[in-house]
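Private note to self, pasted from the team thread so I don't lose it. Backbone tokens:
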């Protein structure tokens, strides 16, 4: 197929096709390449900009709700009173309205941060804000280890942006045989998006699966949103495992093919 024909094929959401020069063993070829879009996204609460994150500009309603929940800005989805996604000259503003009591607490502890791709803790102004306390979760429903493997397999099959660009992470929530998946250039953003997408579901059983390592912040987000099982395709950090132990999260890593390694609360995984 010619380059012109390839350039005419439909693109995944929020990606761009460019012509690039590939050099392979000294041979050169002009070819189309699909690139993921990266956009500054400002999260504005009650008229005050709280955070600017570099993100994939899709599923921003889910992103805003998930971020507000996992950062403790609101305690439940119903406290997000209104939301409007507004394109602006330099990016996108997500304008969010929350109750005055929550907004007062946000202003009291407010921090300005500029998020970088793949960074979940950029801009924190003290060590106390980085290592944030969180309550332990109630017992989660045990699940067969084969369900965790199935969830990761399904996550891998439902990443159109990453398939086209090789530049996106994904997170999914697998429950009762079905999965909800969200993608983003940032792994923390992808997890916030899927948490926001399922926040109004009445249950938290099942498993969160992520296409990345399991850092402290990923475990914190899962625990803050009430999810008891988190499975990563790569390794966890030591701090992530300690947090998972303390908060009651079952943390699995290296979930690939027919194997996985469980680092905390293995009683929830049935072999």
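Design output:
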């Amino acid at each position: 197929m010619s380059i012109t024909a390839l350039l005419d094929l439909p693109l995944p959401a929020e990606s761009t096709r460019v012509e690039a020069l590939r050099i392979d063993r000294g041979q050169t070829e002009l070819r189309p390449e699909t690139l993921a879009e990266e956009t500054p996204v400002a999260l504005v609460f009650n008229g005050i900009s709280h955070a600017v994150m570099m993100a994939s500009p899709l599923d921003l309603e889910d992103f805003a709700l998930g971020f507000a929940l996992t950062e403790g800005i609101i305690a439940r989805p119903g406290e997000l009173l209104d939301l409007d996604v507004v394109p602006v000259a330099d990016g996108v503003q997500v304008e969010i309205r929350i109750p005055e009591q929550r907004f007062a607490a946000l202003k009291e502890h407010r921090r300005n941060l500029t998020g970088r791709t793949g960074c979940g803790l950029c801009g924190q102004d003290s060590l106390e804000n980085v290592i944030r306390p969180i309550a332990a979760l109630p017992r989660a429903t045990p699940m067969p280890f084969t369900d965790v493997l199935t969830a990761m397999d399904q996550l891998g099959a439902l990443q159109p942006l990453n398939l086209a660009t090789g530049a996106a992470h994904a997170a999914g929530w697998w429950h009762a045989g079905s999965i909800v998946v969200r993608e983003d250039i940032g792994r923390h953003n992808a997890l916030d998006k899927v948490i926001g997408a399922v926040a109004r579901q009445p249950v938290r059983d099942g498993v969160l699966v992520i296409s990345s390592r399991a850092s402290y912040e990923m475990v914190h987000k899962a625990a803050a949103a009430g999810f008891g099982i988190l499975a990563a395709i790569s390794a966890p950090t030591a701090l992530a495992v300690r947090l998972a132990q303390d908060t009651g999260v079952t943390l699995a890593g290296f979930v690939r093919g027919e194997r996985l390694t469980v680092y905390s609360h293995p009683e929830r995984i049935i072999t």
